[in-house]
Here is the input.
Amino acid sequence: MKSFIRLLLVISLFSSCKNNPTTISSFEGKRIPIDSQLSEDEEINDFIAPYKQNLDKTMDSVLAYNPKLLTKSDGDLNTAIGNFMADAVMEQANPVFQSRTGKEIDFVLLNNGGIRAQLPSGGLTMKKIYELMPFENEIVIVELTGKDVKDMLQYLSKAKTAHPVSGIELRADRNYKIYKASIDGQPIDENKHYFVATSDYLQQGGDNMNFFANPVEVYSVDYKIRNALIDYLKKTDTLRARIDNRYIRE
Amino acid sequence: MKRRDFIQTTSAAGLFVGLGGLSSLSFQSPGKHLTILHTNDVHSHIGPFGPNDGRNANMGGVARRAALIEKIRQENPNTLLLDAGDIFQGTPYFNFYGGELEFKLMSKMRYDAATIGNHDFDNGIDGLYAQLPHASFDFICSNYDFSNTVMDGHTKDHKIFNKDGIKIGVFGLGVELQGLVNQKLYKETKYLDPMEIATDMASKLKNEEKCDLVIALSHMGYDYKNSTISDVKLAQKTNNIDLIIGGHTHTFLDRPTVLKNKSGKNVIVNQVGCYGLYLGRLDYYFDEEQNLKTKGYSIQV
Here is the structure.
């Protein structure tokens, strides 16, 4: 049927350059699938080989041991895999932020959609972390007012999603509405500013996290989320990621 | 329709393909033949996809693309090979080698030119600049002003290719970077209005340089529901562009789109999705104007 659709249409000529005797008489266009029926250029394969070997070697290197499969659907409002990511961002980014500004990160907020793969049990390879976090997103520290943080709580109440957090305790009722939030055991103070670590993607409006849109300040730490995860795992022998009470519902 | 007619039609079309496309149409025999091959949004895909990769399974791969390009070049040495940007980012090859391998392979495949996509800034404009020694092809971009950046003088705002006496003028159009790319990455690259630039460039290439074919190599995107400038809008709102080879929106077109420009003349728009899953092939046949019996050019898509 496809061949049948290939119609031959005669359409009016365009001949805008009269001084030039050469003009288009006909046109044919198509796309050619690059599939396994095509032969391979062996010289190209040989050229790629050392790059691939070196890459595979690094990608297959084991960063840490993971005792059990971690997926983003294994918890209600917090998951072991999300907790690992948010905790790693907190632990890795805070010293950089501290040394640059003298301030401390209050809490971390990432997005559930940013958990791009599960982590299998066994040795966690570099490759798995690239699958978990394929994007180049950087950690940014967003200075928010207490009011912005309250807007964030409303966002989370509506999202009803296990967006990864670290450094903040959230309690929601049966209908996901957050009725209690505390940082270091203290309730959110509308007159205070908070330093929230997140990704540049979310700060710039990703996942409609609009409470990040007009911050007091955005601080860069020049640290990619993936690199923070890798660095965190490199110093970890066995990953102890678990579901806990940081964000729960009645 | 009757089954018998259908079979006849398909077998006739099959015969065209078997004989090498339109070259089998005998009335063009004295003319010239230009083949344009193109890719877009390859995103650092070097090897083919694996068997468990869903709809992309077992597709793509640079070694296959290279062999196919070479085969087509042997059929027709008058071949132009173009890429519409977003060469970088998408596999660990980019994370590890910063785009070196992508540029080296494109050079080996003898790409003639590429335009710059938003993801080509992913390692910063300095990261792009650092890989330029690995690219033997030109970067054509007409609406990014790189004057205050390291890229200054390393791109062309247009290039004219000559294949068997056919003059092909190519200019490049990039997407608006603000809101799409962190400003820290593109630094002081200035985005200029693509409609204005395209109007000027196409007129210059067609009317002053007397190009037989004017190509916009675009990373603006195929089309949008809102008023954002796109390849389709550009095609319809300008004159003097014959062909727009696009990218950015990862649009898989089964066949090129044929549109009318502001003066009612044909503009072809094509884009081949992403990740090197397809190669676009466009064949243009040219003739001396006086040899053409009819004031028409046939289109087979």
User: Anything to note?
Assistant: Confidence is low (pLDDT under 50) at residues 1-29 of chain B.
